[in-house]
TrEMBL record:
Keyword Transferase found: yes
Annotated keywords: Kinase, Transferase
Region (Disordered): 283-302
Family membership: Belongs to the ROK (NagC/XylR) family.
Name this polypeptide is given: NBD/HSP70 family sugar kinase
Database matches in InterPro entries: ArsR-like_HTH, ATPase_NBD, HTH_MarR-typ, ROK, WH-like_DNA-bd_sf, WH_DNA-bd_sf
GO MF term set: kinase activity
Amino acid sequence: MPAATPGTPSLLRAMNDRAALELLLTHGPLSRTRIGHLTGLSKPTASQLLARLEAVGLVVATGTDGGRPGPSAQLYAINPRAAYVGGLDVTPERVLAAVADITGTVVATHEVPYTEGAQAVDQVTRALGEAVKAAGLHRSDLRRVVIGTPGAFDPQTGRLRYASHLPGWHSPTLLEDLAAALPMPVEYENDVNLAAVAEQRLGAARGHEDFVLLWNEEGLGAALVLGGRLHRGWTGGAGEVGFLPVPGRPLVRQVTRANSGGYQELAGVEGLPRLAADLGVEPAPVPGAADGPATPAASGAPHGPEVAAAVALLARAAAAPEGANLHFLQSYATALATGLASVVAVLDPEIVVLSGAAISAGGEPLRALLEAELAELAPSRPRLVPGEVREHAVLHGALESALAATRDEVFDTSG
């Protein structure tokens, strides 16, 4: 079929179809009259549009708007079965997979704990396969999968960089092996970038074109969104702020431990128990650790022991921000501001979104202290806002990324 040209009826119909589908995504079920009002289309044209979309399986009738004065009107909604996507969040502790329908509703999840010597392909296919099975689907039903990992796959070499702490993910043929094992298009993205996608589409960064997301969990990182688009850099390493040189800490090249040195050593979670002890803050009990240390896989904990300890310390300090607790929060805010000031000085973002379990645990006391400290160190003064996607931000970002591309394909009725 020849491609539609600008101004042709087929192109105009496709544009109206997409506008109506976006309205249904945003507002939920709508009547023909309401769709006509929101799009500016006449009632006959809106009726033809809905009939066309219903015929191709993109919308379904869902009932009526009973309860209002006058005759009941038929309501229409996006057909959730029109397409499905998958997302995965990979950490050194586990692989978490989810399946979502075209509306963005998560229909199933499955988690595979990391086991020593496990192969990345096996973990991915197992986690995704179980999630698909729980959704009552087949893997071939997924239109696209997005996988979030620490670090980034170098677009020139295909090798994972900046993530030496992720075991089993550094084979030179990994991307080829995953492509052979999965029957759908697969995309890969840095985990912190996906957290930014989640905040941009679902959370604190909605409506903002230029922002930085600062993340602190197993690693310290940032995502950079400029002009509404992720900035990844030449090798995918934009935002790897853990490597930033900072005063009083060794350069990353001078140490052998992964993710140690520089900004990571100054403000990463591994140093927080020591900082707290130096300031006279008592160790905080870690949930699930009463019977002694346990691996995250065995305990079902969402994070490793270093993150869990940092979260416990910060949450308790934020609950009573006075005395030694206040000094602890202030010192941590100074550490975070020291590296963040360099990012802000270069990019001058509108807002900085604070995300990740460790920063989130500090709550409003930490946010206010960090904003005040940053104002002393950086020439610009961006607003610091807490992330709103608290649970599984990386996974939600992976699903949103997969949905954006899939909707562009599925909602295109021009052909």
